[in-house]
Every structure is written in C-alpha cells, then in structure tokens.
Write a structure and sequence with these properties.
The complex is a heterodimer of chains A (about 130) and B (about 625).
Chain A (H helix, E strand, L loop, with lengths): L1 H4 L3 H9 L27 E2 L9 E6 L3 H9 L7 E7 L6 E5 L2 E5 L1 H4 L2 E5 H10 L1
Antiparallel strand pairs in A: 1-6, 2-3, 2-6, 3-4, 4-5
Chain B lengths: L2 E2 L8 E5 L6 H9 L3 E5 L6 E9 L2 E7 L11 H10 L11 E7 L3 H12 L4 E7 L1 H6 L6 H8 L2 E4 L9 H12 L5 E2 L18 H18 L9 H10 L4 H20 L1 H21 L4 H18 L2 H17 L1 H14 L8 H6 L4 H7 L6 H10 L8 H12 L4 E3 L3 E2 H24 L12 E4 L7 H35 L15 H8 L1 H4 L6 H9 L6 H9 L10 H10 L2 H13 L4 H11 L3 H24 L1
Parallel strand pairs in B: 2-5, 2-6, 6-7, 7-8
Antiparallel strand pairs in B: 1-9, 3-4, 4-5, 10-11
Helix pairs in contact in B: 3-7, 9-12, 10-11, 11-19, 12-15, 12-19, 15-26, 16-18, 17-24, 17-25, 18-25, 19-26, 20-22, 22-23, 25-27, 26-27
Classes of the chains: A alpha+beta (about 130), B alpha/beta (about 625).
C-alpha cells in the first residue's frame, strides 16, 4: 500500500527537472504531469505564446491532478495537436482546435500547457 | 459483485450517456416525446430527466443522464452519472442497458468517454449522431468496423430525423425481449486502469494510453475526420472578434433584456387579466364569507402570483434554448469570462445576472447554464441583488415623495434619476462584493479550470426548444408554485384573523398581520420606521411591490399605486428623509420575495442556501438602512 502512494521515482525526477514546476505543486501533492519523450526544453513554448493559426503538439501539462483532469477528459493529452484560433476580447480565454473539436481555455491554463511546433515534432519523430 | 435479486415487475430502464452537445437530449426528446418527467436526484441539484419510450413489446423507462466528459466523481453531474451506472442510485439497480451518444464528427474526442463506460460491462448501444454533418463535411466512418472494435452494437444516425432512429428503437425492443431475470451491478474496479503489476497508472498516463487506443480504434474503423465547419469558422471570426465580439454580445443581451423587461409585459398583463377575470367570475357565484375570501383572496391570488411569472420565465428560456441549441451560449460565456472573472465568477454567470434586472425568479432558474457547481451557487446567491422590476414601484413611490425634482448635472441628470441610478449601483455593488467574498470563503474553488467545448453552430429545432420550455414551465408551476401558494395562504390567514363582529374581516392594523407589525416595531424603530411600515415590510415578504398596496390600505388611500399623490403625502407625514432613504436602502438589499426564496430552494436542493441568503441580505439591508437613517 505504501508503495502505491509514493510517486513513481521516474515521474518525480521528470517533475523536478521542469522549470517553474515546483511553485505550482500543492504541498504534499504529486504533480500528475507527463511529457512526450522527444522534448528538448529549448524549443518548448507555452500555448499562450503561440501565434494564431500555428499548429502545435502538446508536450506536457504543468498542472496538479484536480486541474489537469478536465483537460485530459476533453482529449488535451500530451501528443495531441492544438491550434490557437481566437483570443477572446480583453485578455479573455483562448479558443483552440483540438483534434477536430473547439475548446476554450483561460490564459492561466494556456500558460501551463507546454507545446512545440507540429512541424518540429514531425521532424523529431522522423529523426528517431 | 452485488446483484439485484429479481427484475420481475420492474420497468426496463435504459440510460442515455454521453458528452454535452452530442445530441443526447435531441435523441431523448425523439424517443419520449411529451412523456417526460423532470425532478432532482436526491440530495443533489442535478436534474433527473426521464420519460417513457414506446417500442415493440412495451414501454421503456429512458433516463437522460447529464452531459459528461468522464466518470470520475469530480463534479455533481459526473458523480450522479457514475452512481446511476454503478447501481448506487435509482432503487439500487443499474440500468438494464446503456445508449451511449457520441458526435460522429468529433469521434476521437468523444470516444475518450466510451472506454470507461464500456468497461462497466452493461449492455450498450453506441449511437453516433450528426451523420448528415459528417457526410456534408467530407468525413467518413465504417460503422460495422467501429462496432467490431468496440465489441458492442453501433449505429450512425441523425438524431433530428425520427426516421433514422429505427435501429435505436429496435435495440430497446431487443433489450426488453431478452431481459434476464436477475442483474449484476458493475464494480468500480473496472474503471481504474492499472499497469502489469496491478498498480494504478498515473492519471496522465491513463489518458495517454486511452487516447492511443482511441486513435487505433478510429484507424481500424476507417474514420475520416470531417473538414472544420466553414459556417462555424465564418461566424466565429465575427462573434469571437476582439472588437465585434463584444458588440454582438451586447446586442444579444440587450435583446434578451428588453424581451424580458418590456416584451413580456403584454403577456404578463394578459395573464393577470385572465387570472383576475377568472377569480371575479368564480367569486361572483359564491356567497360572501370566509370560504369565498380564502378561495379568491388566498388561493386564487396565490395561483395568480405563481402564473404571472410564466411569461417572463418562458421568454427568458426561449432565448436560452435558442442560444444553447445554436451554439452561441458557449461563445457568449467565452466573451464575458474575463469580466465575470474579476468578480470571482465565470462567463456563464453573465446572462442569469443580467436577467436578474427583470426578475430574479427566471434568472435563478437560468443559472443552470453555469456548469461549475460552486460558481452556479454563487451566481444564484448574488442574483437577487440585481435591481428587479418589482423594486421599481417602491423606488418610484419613495423617490417621488422625498427626492425633489431638480437638476444634478445640468440637463443630463436630475436628482430623482440620480437617486434611481444610485440604487441600481447599490444593488450591483452588493452583488459584486458578495460574489467576491463568497468565492474567497464558502465557495472557494481555486482548482477549477475554465475549459469549455465549443460545438459547431446548428439551427435549433422547434421540437427541442418546445420540449425545454414545457419542462421549465412544469418545474416552476409544480415545484416552486407549491411554496408560493402555501405562503400566500398563510399571509391571507394572518390578514383575516381574528375576525371582527359577525365574522367580518378585520382591518389590517387589527389583524394578526397588524400584531406582527407592532411586534417588530421595536426592531424597525432604529431605522426610522413605525409599526405601519413594519406591516408593509411583513406583507412585502410575499412580493416587494405589495408594500405599496398595503401602505395604501393602512393610510386609507383607495387604489393606491406608486404615482398616488395622496399616498406620497401620507408617507411624508410619517417618515423623515433619513427614514425614507433607509427604506430605499432596505429594499435594495433585502430578499423580500417568497418566489425567489422558493426557486432558490428548488435550484439549490434544500433550505440551507435560501436561509443563509435571506439572513445575509436581511442583515445587509438592516445595517445599510440603519447607517442611512443615522447619517441623514
């Protein structure tokens, strides 16, 4: 039972390596983020900084468990393709296309979604 | 594994499950027609919609479960759906079968919910809707291949076309014909994926694995995603535009507001005339006496005060149904989100709050559009602060009596108009402050992210809009109406007893109601009010505007209304300016409306929130009125 409650060692290492992830972690709560294996940090951006109409691939989600589940349920899972289409007025939510669906996210949430360009992701896959 | 011992005599029960905007309610309306019932699940505010579907072999009880994105007990909607499917609700037995409704144009996203539902092992039919859109936009799907991969039956339909639903009815008939004598309940363990060592997988890994399986199923079923809807792209470019988006939004809310505030007035007047006419007709054939008085002034007046809200409720819900079914409602929430976020609420709260300016009763019912439970309660809680139309007669009477006619800002703003504007601002300020406090205390919800799916634009259907209006009207008349009627009769009794000589009705001041007014006089004295205003405050618990008629009766002014000069002069004689402003402030904050309390009880699933709301607003009203009386 004790083993089940401990965060996986590899996941703990991945979380610790992420810049800025520690301050988002609630006290004693394991960060339930995951990341795509092919993700050099240099080319990773936040979704909120991606220009409109640029297609990107989700690399990882820097949010705690309760916050990440609604995203996962709507198909916003590492590896999915996202394309920002509209910024709502007055710094309002960001509307993105996610695998054929349209989803609106607040900017705060969009800054926790780490993405890379879809073209680059395809190139990395080809190289591997 | 628990089992239901015998199903003999129990109706066949089928649950409709699926994500929001997949066509689930359209299918439900097609299957059940007008044979629908709306109630709440016990202990929660989630609405239970059920109805009887007629199929070969008999009737099937169909439950339309709330739209969900998953089965984790994260929200009340998902908890109820999960509990119903696991047999932990609905008489402790799971449904005999599940009809899972998924949008074929968004197959891969919607299949994410399919896996945990199918894992429960219930007999399931997957209904893929929007067949027409999939075809029009160049998409495609091998339905037989999908059914094979999922291991259950699957059909592709257009839920709006009744003729395409024969396979669904055939499925229901087949379930009815082949019903086993006993039934086993599914277990939760089936919903928790684990690795090879039996350890639960981390959350993200679970969903990543699920998405890969879903994509594999899509490939095996030759799923060809449709091109994005051109019409949706064009409309969104306008509706979500940084400049035009707010303009469209404001135009829409203005139309809705005007329709409730002005457009519904002839319907309200007509309804009142019909109710009053019918009451007069019944009254004319009954002999004078307490029974006639109870029937006409108690019960019939109660019926009138319930029915009179219907035009506004139906008008507001007509717009809500059109906006929701067309896909605009979610866009409006997106446009208003940043503004509402500043008060701790979210975009979906905007329409209920705006509607509160016309009447809090339909506005509170409209708060159902707010998905997050805590945000919904917060929206309901602050809605009665918005200056509803029932406050206007009270404001008009007191402003005309105590505020001089004269300019404040030259020709642009007069003193009376400024006072009225100030009262609107006072209500709005109370709402914003209360929302701010609530969202940082009782309704704190820091971990709820704003994630909304935007469906493509679609033309609303008459059937769907009509069914929703019928449902709302029934809910209001049957559930809220009972409470309003009861309070009306209690107020009648208080005004009628003790009876005078030869059974004649007492004057208001000699009645039990008058005694209540005198009893509370010491409490209202610090506000500058006497016992007569005290009686007015008690009678206005029924509805705010009732105080005008009550004061007219007490001061002996016949047919008194807010423009009655005689009543204004009488009030000038018994209230000073400080007390008059205190009364205005009291009415700006106090929850003097039993219909609002009744509808809050219904929408929050108990008396806790209405009681807290009544107490909070009363305290705010009393404190504000006291300060006004002392300062002025």
């Amino acid at each position: 039972m004790e083993e089940r409650l401990k965060p996986d060692a590899a996941e703990e290492r991945v979380s610790a390596e992420r810049p800025g992830s520690a301050n988002r972690r609630a006290a004693g709560e394991a960060l339930l983020a995951a990341e795509e294996p092919l993700a050099p940090e240099a080319s990773v951006r936040m979704l909120a900084n991606v220009p409109l109409e640029e297609e990107v691939v989700l690399v990882r989600i820097d949010l705690a468990g309760d916050e990440v589940e609604p995203l996962l349920e709507r198909g916003i899972v590492p590896g999915c393709r996202l394309c920002p289409l509209h910024y709502a007025p007055g710094d309002g939510p960001l509307v993105c296309r996610v695998d054929g669906s349209l989803v609106a996210l607040r900017r705060e949430t969009a800054t926790c979604l780490c993405v890379r360009s879809a073209q680059e992701a395809m190139g990395l896959l080809d190289a591997n | 594994m628990a089992s239901v011992p015998s199903l003999a005599g129990l109706p066949l029960r089928v649950a409709l499950v699926g994500p929001p905007n997949a066509g689930k309610s359209t299918l439900f309306n097609q299957l059940t027609g007008l044979r629908q019932r709306v109630a709440n699940y016990p202990g929660v505010t989630v609405e239970r919609r059920s109805g009887a579907a007629s199929v070969a072999g008999g009737l099937v009880d169909v439950i339309d479960l709330p739209g969900i994105h998953g089965l984790s007990p994260r929200s009340p909607d998902q908890t109820v759906t999960r509990d119903v499917l696991l047999g932990m609700m609905e008489d402790g037995r799971p449904p005999d079968a599940v009809v899972m409704v998924l949008d074929a144009t968004r197959l891969e996203t919607h299949l994410m919910i399919a896996e945990p539902v199918l894992a429960l092992g219930l007999r399931t039919l997957v209904v893929l809707t929007m067949a027409d859109e999939l075809d029009e936009r160049g998409g495609g799907l091998d339905v037989a291949g999908l059914a094979e991969k999922l291991g259950v039956e699957a059909v592709l339909v257009n839920a709006r076309d009744a003729s395409s639903l024969a396979p669904v009815r055939d499925f229901l008939a087949a379930v009815l014909a082949a019903r086993p004598e006993t039934q086993e309940c599914p277990v939760v363990a089936a919903m928790e994926p684990s690795d090879r060592r039996g350890r639960p997988l981390p959350l993200v890994d679970q969903f990543k694995a699920r998405r890969q399986r879903v994509q594999g199923i899509g490939r095996a079923a030759a799923f060809r995603p449709p091109a994005p809807s051109k019409a949706t792209q064009r409309i969104d470019a306008f509706v979500l535009h940084r400049l035009w988006g707010p303009v469209v939004f404001l135009a829409v809310v203005l139309v809705v507001f005007q329709a409730i505030f002005k457009g519904a007035v002839p319907l309200i007047d007509g309804t009142e005339a019909v109710v009053a006419g019918a009451g007069d007709l019944v009254g004319s054939v009954l002999p004078d006496g307490w029974f006639r008085s109870l029937l006409i002034e108690g019960i019939w007046a109660g019926v009138g005060s319930v029915v009179v809200f219907l035009p506004q409720i139906l008008t507001l819900f007509l717009f809500i149904a059109l906006m929701e079914d067309s896909g605009y409602m979610v866009r409006a929430a997106v446009v208003a989100d940043r503004l509402m976020q500043r008060a701790g609420l979210q975009g979906q709260s905007f329409l209920p709050l705006l509607s509160g300016y016309a009447c809090a009763v339909p506005a509170i019912m409209a708060a159902r559009t707010v998905e997050d439970e805590k945000d919904r309660i917060a929206t309901i809680f602050v809605t009665p602060f918005m200056t509803c139309s029932a406050r206007l007669p009270v404001y008009a009477l007191l402003i005309a009596a105590f505020i001089p006619e004269g300019p404040l800002l030259g020709p642009f703003l007069g003193q009376r108009a400024a006072t009225l504007l100030g009262l609107y601002a006072l209500g709005l300020g109370g709402a914003v402050l209360t929302a701010f406090l609530l969202k940082r205390s009782l309704l704190r919800n820091p971990t709820a992210p704003f994630v909304m799916e935007l469906p493509p634009y679609r033309l609303p259907t008459l059937r769907s809009v009509g069914a929703r209006l019928m449902g709302r009207a029934k809910v209001f008349l049957l559930r809220v109406g009972k409470i309003i009627m009861t309070v009306s009769v209690v107020l009648w009794l208080l005004a009628r007893f003790p009876a005078g000589p030869e059974g004649a009705a007492p004057t208001v001041e000699d009645s039990a109601l008058g005694a209540v007014g005198r009893f509370i006089e010491p409490a209202v004295e610090p506000l500058g009010f006497d016992w007569r205003i005290g009686i007015g405050l008690v009678t206005s618990l029924a509805a705010r505007e009732v105080i005008v008629g009550t004061l007219g009766t007490i001061y002996g002014v016949e047919s008194a209304d807010e423009s009655s000069l005689e009543l204004q002069e009488a009030l000038q004689g018994s209230l000073d300016v400080g007390a008059a402003v205190a009364l205005l402030v009291f009415f700006a904050f106090a929850l003097q409306c039993m219909s609002t309390v009744a509808v809050m009880r219904r929408e929050t699933g108990g008396w806790r929130w209405p009681a807290l709301q009544f107490g909070y607003m009363l305290a705010l009203a009393y404190g504000g009125a006291w300060v006004a009386n002392v300062l002025l």
